[in-house]
Design goal:
The chain has 166 residues and is of the alpha/beta class. It has a single domain, classed as Response regulator (Rossmann fold, 3-Layer(aba) Sandwich), CATH 3.40.50. Helix 1 packs across helix 4 and helix 2 packs across helix 4. The radius of gyration is 16 Å and the shape is globular.
């Protein structure tokens, strides 16, 4: 969402002191398709650090919205019903401090995209829950496992700590 005075295509400056010390100001999560892992990760980071880290997600390919993602993310209070998958080329902004890739093809694309920029790119190998088979409950469990793995990695990487009473 833009604010008055924002420059299109540029990540807004963060208010000093609002980003956690271990976190960069602007983060991009990338995957093979921007339908499952990368939107999950972006929503988790935004939920853990509301208004303190600028976060977006994209994929090598756009993909289609996934109802299993919506289901498991709603369990933790994240509404992804309005998420529309996008590619690297669809991004309206640049200047990310950190790109976190969740699949090999996204990592290669991110390295290619950022080779002339001073951007940190990290690869977090993350299982693809769309490969799960079985009953609806078994498939949902696979998606939950990926969601929880991403939550754990994000908390560790960005230095999240629980606030008293919450």
């Amino acid at each position: 969402m833009s604010e008055p005075g924002d420059v299109p295509g540029k990540i807004p400056d963060m208010v000093p002191g609002t980003a956690p010390s271990a976190a960069p100001g602007a983060v991009l999560f990338a995957c093979g398709m921007n339908a499952v892992r990368s939107p999950m990760a972006a929503a988790i980071l935004a939920k853990l650090f509301p208004g303190r880290v600028y976060v977006k997600s994209c994929g090598v390919r756009a993909g289609e919205p996934d109802p299993f993602v919506e289901a498991v993310m709603s369990e933790i209070g994240c509404d992804l019903a309005a998420h529309r998958p996008k590619t690297f080329e669809d991004l309206d902004e640049s200047g990310f401090d950190l790109v976190l890739t969740l699949a090999p093809e996204a990592h290669h694309k991110a390295l290619e995209m950022t080779r002339t920029d001073a951007v940190e790119v990290e690869y977090w190998p993350t299982p693809d829950p769309t490969l799960a088979t079985g009953s609806r409950d078994q498939i949902l469990d696979s998606y939950r496992a990926v969601r929880d793995l991403l939550m754990t990695r994000i908390k560790k990487r960005f230095g999240w700590t629980a606030t008293p009473g919450g």
